Amino acid sequence: MAGSDTSSHELGNLTSVKGVEAKETRIFVEGEPHSEVVSKNEHYDNDQLARLGKKQVLRRNFGFMTILGFSCTILITWEAVTVLFAQGLNNGGTAGLIYSFIFVWAGNFSVFTTMSELVSMAPTSGGQYHWVAMLAPRSCSKFLSYLTGWLTVGGWQGSVASSALLTGNMILGMTSLNNESFVPQLWQGTLLFWVILLFAVFVNTLVSSALPKFEGLILILHVLGFFAILIPLVTLGPHGDAKEIFNGWVNNGGWQSQGLSFMVGMMGNAFAFVGTDAAFHMSEETVNPSVVVPRSILLSLVINGACGFAMLVAMVFCMGNFDDAISSGPGMLGFPHMYIFQQATNSTAGATVMSAIIMILGACATVGMLASTSRVFWSFARDRGLPFWGTLSKVDSRTTVPIWAVTVTSIISVLLSLINVGSAVAFLNVTSLSISCLYASYLIAAVLLLYRRTTKGFSLPDASDLPAIANTTGAELVWGPFHLPGAFGIANNVLTICYLIVVGFFSFWPPVSNPPPDVMNYDIVVTGFLVIFSVLYYLFWAKKEYNGPVVER
């Protein structure tokens, strides 16, 4: 266990790393990818990746500010809260929405503090499945790593598909806002899905070198857009009674207790934080990722959480007659916030502009989600975890982008979108893997980290052996620069596990106690299918080829 007696062995305290001075490293932490300092110290990142058994094939374009923008604009918490806050009103009410947001926000801080310890140890695009291979007992590390890889791939594939559809449907919502006679069709949402996805593919392939600058610019829009919506909403909109809002509990789902209703209604807020691990999978494209990635993730949680909470409070205070909002044209599509904007500003044009800001940021979030999803595909294929891994693991020599992984991810998303033509409910259930699969992958990694922490699993080598020791399967494990030592780290690790179990469990619950088929939550069926498929594929085929993260020579 890392404590005062082992701190000298932690990477963050090394005086030199293969000739790279600590002073240079500290400057390097703050540098952006285009700086001279980075070019002088580029071999440090390459050596760190080599210690993890991987070759540097992707270009390190992201510095601290650009990866922070990437993290913030994928999370888009305040935007998601604005769109999805209605989900918690039937289960929990206004009080439940506010208090569950605080619970989810605190829980995510615990989870991603734990995950940041892991990315600081082993900053690779593989993320969770690579860490599981490092941490698990040798007898089961291969299988657990493989299962975690499929859960991560499935969770991110569901995220990018649901983001593209939600954004496309917002365009239909704005059309309905401006034309009350407009009757949206499912196929129109699917076509707009394709347009949003095509935009994401364009940015990720043809202009991929501009992705970091693009994310930095979107971070500015993310912050300015927050104030552009918040200020007119709270200034012009109706104001509710504070006592009623902070004590307004509702149980319209027919659950046995208000507490159970609260837990079911919490899922909208949980979804608003999906995608926090996006920066993990861009680690091999980030300068000094063992320091920069944990910082960017935790700061993005501060920024997005604060903005999300402020926007949530503003929405519940200024929503006016919510029944009217739900029965409006946009409300029937699941976007009552558009009607609330219209009533607050007394202007359809003003409401359209405010809604368009959220829609644009949603489209930009899809760009980042496609990038992260393709990196997970590419990394898992590189380690022979996916069918056709030889093709999926190829990187374009000109752009240094895994073009095949981007293509396959996009094709799968398009195929999934065809389900929406027949049934929007079926599509939403297929793409609901976002919470269940990603949370399951975090849980496996967190449990194994706690196991290694409490059973002397971290056997730190002599300082003279560092850093030529790999955080790969069967190797010694070395804490990274970001690390919670001693009992504090163990306590946070336990909180992480408890939170993930609770949210993961309730992600399978329907919104009402006796749901009809069209309201039933089939997430457990979809997640179960993915797990069963991955296990069977492993037993009959993949175990012959997959041996955990491959050590590249």
Radius of gyration (CA) equals 23 Å
Write down how many β-strands occur, each being a DSSP E stretch of 2 or more residues: 2
Q: Identify the overall geometry.
A: globular
**What share of the residues lie within helices?**
55-70%
Q: Order of strands side by side in the largest beta sheet?
A: 1-2
Portion of residues in beta strands equals under 5%
Summed over residues and divided by their number, the pLDDT gives a mean of 85
Instruction: Give the terminus-to-terminus CA distance.
Output: 31 Å
Structural class: mainly alpha
Q: How many DSSP H or I helices?
A: 23
**Largest sheet, if any?**
2 strands, antiparallel
- Give the helices and strands as they follow along the chain: EEHHHHHHHHHHHHHHHHHHHHHHH
Low-pLDDT regions: 1-31, 459-471
Question: How do you describe this structure in short?
Answer:
With 553 residues, this protein is an all-alpha fold. It is built from 23 helices and 2 strands. It has a two-stranded antiparallel sheet with strand order 1-2.
